[in-house]
Write a structure and sequence with these properties.
This protein is an alpha/beta fold and 275 residues long. The protein is 42% helix and 16% strand. The longest helix is centred in the middle third of the chain and has 21 residues, at 124-144.
Length: 275
């Protein structure tokens, strides 16, 4: 029996307009049959009030929600190191989470590699403690809106802190807030040579899934295009084993959106229901 999940697309890596939200793809995603859109929250938060109101109206008209948001914090907010500004981070998070709630968002991915990056020479454990502290302060704000914060491990060298799901789970446990969980990204997992079996012992932390076809030799990822193109089976079987039945978002750049997006949706439906 296959896994029945909902499918969406992260628009952060395909955004083509100056606002960097990728909202220009909303109508097509709905037309292609995707269940939701995953908008980048940093860019959404940067919109003017009028632009944000127009985005909400656009989603309402199309009949699709940004059930998940990626890209929580912009890089200019420092979360680690001697220049970390917790007050600015909490203030940004308050506005961002309010807007996410207005979009119908239920999960916010907390990757934000640039904001989290540990400066050279700064103690790693101290940086982790800074992330624990700021996340404990923003978690109650998210909880007021019914939003789960999903820590997203990001591969090296893109990130130099929390690069695996196991590390994300340990970090979430230390934060110890009921609405702080962990996201798994297939591309980052494969890049870090982490086995999907990590989910078995840490299944209580799993809140969201990203997927793409990894092209490790080139350090890049693309939209899935064929069920046989990559070894997806072990990952999907593990998701089934831990009872995951929520959402899966494609996160990758795109060359021809009109061709690749519908093809990828068909592939995902096929491979997730084949196991």
């Amino acid at each position: 029996m296959g896994i029945i999940v909902r499918f969406g697309v992260c628009t952060n890596l395909i955004a083509s307009k100056p606002d960097k939200t990728g909202m220009e793809y909303i109508e097509k995603l709905a037309d292609f049959g995707y269940d939701y859109v995953e908008l980048p929250l940093d860019a959404v938060t940067d919109l003017s009030d009028a632009e944000f109101a127009a985005l909400k109206e656009r989603l309402t008209t199309v009949g699709i929600r940004s059930e998940v948001c990626c890209n929580f914090f912009p890089g200019w907010i420092r979360l680690t190191g001697p220049d970390a500004d917790e007050e600015a981070a909490v203030a940004f998070a308050a506005k961002a989470l309010r807007r996410a709630h207005e979009l119908g968002t239920e999960v916010v991915g907390f990757g934000s590699a640039n904001a989290k990056r540990v400066p050279e020479g700064f103690p790693y454990r101290a940086a982790l403690s800074q992330l624990v502290s700021v996340t404990r302060k923003i978690a109650p704000i998210a909880a007021e809106y019914g939003i789960v914060i999903a820590i997203e491990p990001i591969r090296r060298p893109r990130s130099n802190i929390i690069t695996t799901f196991a590390e994300g789970a340990s970090h979430a446990e230390e934060i110890h807030q009921p609405n702080v969980k962990v996201e798994i990204d297939f591309f980052h997992m494969v890049s870090e040579n982490e086995s999907p079996s990590v989910l078995i012992d840490n299944k209580k932390w799993l809140a969201h899934v990203h997927i793409a076809k990894p092209i490790l030799a080139e350090g890049k990822r693309v939209f899935p295009a064929d069920p046989a193109e990559y070894e997806y089976a072990g990952f999907i079987e593990t998701l089934r084993a831990v009872g995951y039945n929520e959402r899966v978002s494609v996160e990758a750049p795109v060359s021809d959106f009109d061709a690749e997006a519908p093809q990828s949706l068909a592939v995902l439906r096929s491979i997730f229901r084949a196991f």
